[in-house]
Amino acid sequence: MQGPTIVIGVIGSDCHAVGNKILENVFSRAGFNVVNLGVMVSQDEYIDAAIETGAQAIIIGSIYGHGEIDCIGMRDRCIERGLDGIPLYVGGNLVIGKRDFKDVEVIFMGMGFDRVFPPDVDLDAVCQFLHQDTAAYAKHREAEATA
Amino acid sequence: MIAVSIDIGSTWTKGALFEVEGGDLTLKKRAIHPTTIQHLAIGFFEVLNDLLGSEHAIERVRSGEVSLSYSSSAKGGLAVAALGLVPSITLESARVAAYSAGAKVTQIFSYRLTRSDIRALESNPPDILLFAGGTDGGDVGHVLHNAELLAKSNVACSIVYAGNRAAQDDIVELLGHKDLVVVDNVLPSLDEPNPDPARKAMRDIFLKRIVKGKGLDEIIEATGAEPLPTPYAVYEYAKLIHEKIPGWSDFILMDMGGATTDIYSAHNQIQESGTILRGLPEPEVKRTVEGDLGMRVSAHVASETGRPMIEEHFAHDAERIAAFYSYIEKVTLEPDYLPEDQEGKDFDTLLAGVCAAYACERHAGRSTVVYTCDGSVDVVTGRDLTHVSKVIGSGGWMSRASHFDVSAWLKLRAVDQKGRTVLLPGNVEYFRDEQYLFPLLANLARNFPEAAAFAGIRMLSHS
């Protein structure tokens, strides 16, 4: 059976493609059906693709330091577009300057992201989280549907 | 061999007789009669008899002595309503498929249908509802909701389901009592458009059911030959020229009529360095239709669409602008009017320039410069036609106008309203379908593909 569908891409005006290719490779090998939007992806493009493909998670990458401004309002936009109850992940070089990752995590969690990862995260751990979270969200949706 | 081609248009039924020898094709005779809207077969047989000049015209076709091919865009052509999920994704894929099948897209719907959408479909029924939504294995919730509403409705047109494969069985259960055809998804995955199965299904429905409603079945019975929607034939013809004629892999074909302007472009999209492509992949041959841009029936709406360009053209001289608009009122009421005086001719040229420029602008893609930490990057969406060097003008007015400078008009739409670059060519070579043979040659191409493609290009007048 095919694993959960996930949408990945590099957000904003960021055209760094290498990390994105690595993520596609790792997630595919881990059994996910990866919809890769490539680089320079807007918030709406992630959401459009997730609606159309019935994706169970959106994973946003950002390397160039402007992730904070690009990601503001992503969760609100998902809700506004009817894409409620989907795990949102973000990772990479998310902010400019030497800031403690704990602070960065707080900022992105505050925006409604479920998981926030630093650039040196172990991707196997990310896959574990993804399996866990997509299953939990699915269970939650089922419970809501039967209620 | 003698080959006859006939095109039943909304006003005129036009025909031509060709002699085909090997790969060569020669025009021998033409005929034209007013289209008999009440009974399309009458006008058709008048043209056929004119061309074959005998009482035995039908027998000669039936015996195989004369090869007959014909098309029709009369009685509204092929009206399709397109339904998708996300507007820029499956709705767009459905629209592209419908246009390539020669359809006029009369209504569009995305996400969940509402009760008023259903009422709109019931009160203004299309010939076909093209029902898409979800990539394969993708969203099913929206398509099932839409299917449930359609199942309960009085929508009686043919429905082509070309959405998520995972929902096919449920769709058959829900809509089995309707006139339903299920085909492969128009967009099985985001980077793989698949318009052909839906396109073929629409053509088959046109042949099996719609021809009857339009009274074309009588012609099929008498001659044994089947019609195509005219734009379907022209689309195939453009594809043939793109594939077969050296030097013609990239071109734009404009077919400007009284009511609509059709743009076909053939082109292989290549990504250049320093550009990023966004959005759905583009097909090699694409057709779009503008129902608000035309030389007569649509002259009024076209002149409103093009108002900024028109006012600029007259350097904001109120008197001349008023004269132009009163001319537009006149030709809208009198669709057969052809100007004799220079002023009327100039006004028609301006109107044609507006139709050509806006129709091409809507057909072409866009590019915007985005500044990144690696320097500036061009983000391209849609069709990049900047390297296309040939434009063909066809249709009543364009066939006649020998001094039309298409490049000058296209340049006026180099930047769109949002400030994005419109990906249209700068200077092009302009070719004119002087004898207005393209629709007729497109029909002929069904039986004599290469001869028709070469003849079409050979007969163009180059200015």
Question: Helix and strand layout, with pairings?
Answer:
The complex is a heterodimer of chains A (147) and B (463).
Chain A: E1 5-10, H1 18-29, E2 33-36, H2 43-53, E3 57-62, H3 67-71, H4 74-80, E4 88-92, H5 101-110, E5 115-117, H6 123-146
Parallel strand pairs in A: 1-2, 1-3, 3-4, 4-5
Chain B: E1 2-8, E2 12-21, E3 24-34, H1 40-52, H2 57-62, E4 66-72, E5 79-83, H3 87-100, E6 104-109, H4 115-123, E7 128-131, H5 141-152, E8 158-161, H6 168-175, E9 180-182, H7 196-213, H8 217-223, E10 228-229, H9 230-244, E11 251-256, E12 261-266, E13 275-278, E14 285-290, H10 299-305, H11 307-313, H12 318-333, H13 342-363, E15 366-372, E16 375-381, E17 390-394, H14 396-400, H15 406-411, E18 421-422, E19 429-432, H16 438-444, H17 449-458, E20 461-462
Parallel strand pairs in B: 1-4, 4-10, 5-6, 5-7, 7-8, 8-9, 11-17, 13-16, 17-19
Antiparallel strand pairs in B: 1-2, 2-3, 11-12, 12-14, 15-16, 15-18, 19-20
How many strand elements of chain B?
Answer: 20
**Average of pLDDT of chain B:** 94
**Coarse structural class of chain A:** alpha/beta
Distance between the termini of chain B: 33 Å
Per the principal axes of the C-alpha atoms, what is the gross shape of chain B? globular
Indicate the CATH architecture of chain A: 3-Layer(aba) Sandwich
